[in-house]
Amino acid sequence: MNKPLIGIIPLIDIERESYWMLPGYMKGIEEAGGIPVMLPLTSDREALGKLANYFDGFLFSGGHDVSPAVYREEVSDKCGECCPKRDEMETILLPMVLEQDKPVLGICRGLQLINAALGGSLYQDLPAQHPSSVCHRQPAPYDQPIHSVELVPNTPLQKCLGKEELPVNSCHHQGIKELAFGLQPMAYAKDGLVEAVWKPGSRFVWAVQWHPEFSHKVDENSRKIFGAFVKAAAGDGVSCLN
């Protein structure tokens, strides 16, 4: 397999005026056979167009709350800190990447951003707007599962993992409210929250609400998700069953 170049959306520390990266994003891609590269934070369309052309796949990472402006809502007092520069960059870059049918993997905020950018909406705060007994925001350590999700039969994720139910970690307070047109669910939490999606008709567009970047060292399923993404970016298909 050729080693595909994977562009990763940077994590932003607004207070320190810095970009940073969790090693799990990089290591998960490297161990699956890819070459991870953190992208610059920019909304320059020419620059983003060149990045969309150059990289073989894109990982939309976790981070700040997606601004309610992306999904046409007013900000509630339960919404957390947003990063408008990330929202702007990603809502410009995503359509460019989809137009070229480049593989995409979204994680946590990445799932939420993809859903919002494609016309869906989000719960600004799950405890206030979608209360349940499921723990969606666990304490450390983050590589351990805290609840389970049910995989939708015959979806790419279910076929990839070969399971009906999956234990996952969880560290979020927002989630999908209305699913965007063109996306299909691949997993649900026990409280009905959509926890994974895909985009039929695309070469590879998957997004998960949990955090394989934290669990890939100890969890084979997390490694399979990274593996399917990297294989798609390398042009080798998406099957990840052993």
Automatic annotation (TrEMBL):
Entry keyword Glycosyltransferase: no
Which UniProt keyword terms apply here? Hydrolase
Superkingdom in the source lineage: Bacteria
One Pfam family recorded for the sequence: Peptidase_C26
Query: Which Gene Ontology terms describe the biological processes this protein takes part in?
Result: polyamine catabolic process
Its GO CC terms are:
cytosol
Q: Where is the signal peptide?
A: none
UniProt xrefs under InterPro entries: Class_I_gatase-like (IPR029062), Peptidase_C26 (IPR011697), PuuD-like (IPR044668)
Q: Which CDD domains does the entry mention?
A: GATase1_2 (cd01745)
GO molecular-function terms, A-Z? gamma-glutamyl-gamma-aminobutyrate hydrolase activity
Please state what the protein is called.
Gamma-glutamyl-gamma-aminobutyrate hydrolase family protein
Which organism was this protein described from? Candidatus Blautia avicola
Q: List the top taxonomic levels of the source.
A: Bacteria, Bacillati, Bacillota, Clostridia, Lachnospirales
